[in-house]
What does this fold into?
Amino acid sequence: MKRNKFLVSLLAAISAPVASFAHLTTIFKEREKGFKISAGEGRIHGHIQLKGVNVNVLDVKISGRDTNGDLAIFEQTSLSQGRGTPLHIHDNQDEVFYVIEGDYYFKVGDDTYNLSRGDSIFLPRKIPHAWTQVSEKGRMTVILQPAGKLEEFFVTMSALDHEPSQEEITKIFATNDMRVVGPPLKLK
It folds into this structure.
């Protein structure tokens, strides 16, 4: 009787890693396949409508979950003229913005830039940066490398049932590995 229990336990112990490996193989096979995200759609979350910082809509195009945290790509539809982000720092991510339409004003370290359709800007990690929407409407592609927690930040901000205070916004930034270090940019 004890021998049977031992054999059953041994088989269970041996099969658990095999089952886990089979699951990992499935995940890796899924990553070997490409996928399409249609215009005007967001992967995983649908449209993410922000609150607090601005009321823009974010669509996840490539999630950090798709790349094992290596990369995230978002499309932002900007609906908040004169609003943007507070001056903040990503300690672990580089960020690239590509303007699809509209006009924006960026601050990166001590430098300021005006961006319009077709312009790109690189925001290196550990450098304070902020942006403000100049035009009535706009759209940008936002790329983060590595992905970090920006996707979770967007989901958290959209799930709020109220307009957050500055203190609450600062806390949500910190929870998602960003530091607020100054106020939002004002339009010139």
